[in-house]
Design brief:
By secondary structure, this protein is of the alpha/beta class. The protein contains 8 helices and 7 strands; from the N terminus they run ββαβαβαβααβααβα. The protein is globular and about 45 Å long. The two termini are 30 Å apart.
Amino acid sequence: AGLKLYSFYVGGRLEANGHSYNPAILSALPHLEGRDTYLELYLQGNKRNNTDEQAVAFVQEIADKAKAYGVKIVLYPHTGFYIDRLSDAVRIARKAKRDNIGVMFNLCHFLRVEPKTDLAAALKDAAPFLWRVSTSGAEIGGTSWGQLIQTVDRGNYDQAALRAQLHAVGFQGPVGFQCYAISGDSKTNLQRSINAWKKLK
């Protein structure tokens, strides 16, 4: 269709010993060669029972296989997963020591998991690895996805401040619209969000 695919969301799970993931991840890699498409890599697991060593082994395995096709990955912090904070993603990326591993910042998960964390400081720490960002309209203090994932023109979260903080740490990558479970017409929701983001300039 001639569309630019910036990234897509895949991942794996830490087991009692080792890890598992859908082999479709590997079969997709040859099709991504030369397309500058990133893997947004999530990692399920239990912080009480699993370890960074396990997480690093999983991330390195995917990164090494992706490297053969020139594909980069970003570690995706997700509520309730082993990597659920931006700092987790940065820590694992540092430990993995692969030049095709970065991290992704997701506003909705950040607000749900660590709403009291200093965002400016977190972004500054993540800056050397920060390759992808997603945002959405959100309510400050919100706890449900309905409150934390809205079109960008809704909610009282200060999107201009987020944009300024990203600029301050030198982020120049793409910013995606997190649209999970938003009701209504998708095209309309996207256009409203694009317009709201552009107004921040």
